[in-house]
Design brief:
mainly alpha, two-stranded antiparallel ribbon, 2% strand
Length: 353
């Protein structure tokens, strides 16, 4: 009886997955491109853009694979707060603290921000200042996924860089905490026209990367979250012996440096690190999606691409909006056109050397 039931469940899941995969493949091709963005935006003025970025990131990840997750997170945190405008890259100024200084962004890796500025220098040296930091951030995130084993996919380009960073209040309001339950996550992302499948797909970004103890010790102390697998919890307590320990652990215990579907297997085994992760399997609205992704990696990849294409176009600046920054961490001085003069370009190239 048990064997028959198990076989039926497996067949049902595979059948459901095949239906969802077919629909998601169509959905990816149906994601509309925002006016002002284009699949061939830099074809004439920076044709080697994507090659330059991918070649450099291969070298970066060979030295430190952890930076892949760092770059992916920066793109997420940029897009969810006032859109994909590179505002999270800006340092603070006399006008106030930057997005980087807001609590949700304090764990973003300084080295990952530096990688983006390094990529900007390489690209601008090759093509001139025609590629935005926002586009470089989006491409770096895409390559972080692909170079760690995930899907490769094209993204529309043409974003411009924002002139201002978001306030602390706006950052907190748009980046749900790791302690948030599924209802909070679903409601927050619904305001950005992302549906439950998008939410579960984007959460799969946690298949790579690490977390500091203070992001999840609320599930260990003073009382252990009963939903959490006991052996998993005991191992976490060895890494985080107190609620304020400043150690780190991996987000996906099965394959922490590989972009795959094992994150969802973790959730099914009650080994999700954050409440915002584990509750996706607890909540009946998202449990089936988690299960489908856990048994079908191709299905996850297809839906992840769709969600990334949608997220990557949130409130983008295009055309004459914003600017093309000469330095990703600072606004350009004065009002300047995106096409720099020969003298300006020579100066920038010298500074980048």
């Amino acid at each position: 009886m048990t064997t028959t039931r198990s076989a039926f469940l497996t067949s049902f899941l595979l059948f459901s997955s095949s239906l969802l995969l077919a629909s998601s493949t169509q959905a990816a091709s149906d994601v509309p491109v925002v006016n002002g963005l284009s699949w061939t935006f830099y074809e004439s003025n920076c044709p080697k853009l994507e090659s330059v970025i991918r070649t450099e990131l291969k070298k970066v990840f060979k030295k430190n694979i952890g930076l892949a997750a760092g770059l992916l997170r920066i793109h997420f945190h940029d897009c969810f707060v006032q859109g994909c405008d590179g505002s999270v890259l800006l340092d603070g100024s006399a006008s106030g603290p930057s997005e980087k200084d807001a609590p949700p962004n304090l764990s973003l890796r300084a080295e990952a921000f530096q990688v983006i500025n390094d990529l900007r220098a390489l690209v601008h040296k090759r093509c001139g200042r025609v590629v935005s930091c926002a586009d470089i951030t989006a491409l770096a995130a895409r390559d972080a996924v692909f170079l760690t084993g995930g899907p490769d996919y094209a993204i529309p380009l043409g974003r411009r860089d924002g002139l201002n960073f978001a306030t602390r209040e706006a950052t907190l309001a748009n980046l749900p905490a790791p302690s948030s339950n599924a209802s909070v996550i679903l409601s927050s992302l619904a305001t950005k026209n992302l549906n439950p499948t998008d939410v579960v797909s984007l959460s799969g970004g946690h298949t790579i990367g690490i977390s500091h103890c203070n992001s999840f010790t609320n599930r260990l102390y003073p009382n252990q979250d009963p939903v959490m697998d006991k052996t998993f919890a005991n191992n976490l307590k060895l890494t985080c012996p107190t609620s304020n320990t400043d150690n780190t652990t991996v987000l996906d215990i099965r394959s922490p440096n590989k972009f795959d579907n094992k994150y969802y297997v973790d959730l099914m085994n009650r080994q999700g690190l954050f409440t915002s992760d584990q509750d996706l399997y607890t909540d009946k609205r998202t449990r089936g999606i988690v299960t489908s992704f856990a048994v079908n990696q191709s299905l996850f990849f297809e839906n992840f691409v769709t969600a990334m294409l949608k997220m990557g176009q949130l409130s983008v600046l295009t055309g004459t909006q914003g600017e093309i920054r000469a330095n990703c961490s600072a606004r350009n001085s004065g009002t300047r056109d995106s096409l720099t003069s020969v003298v300006e370009q020579v100066v920038e190239d010298l500074l980048d050397m």
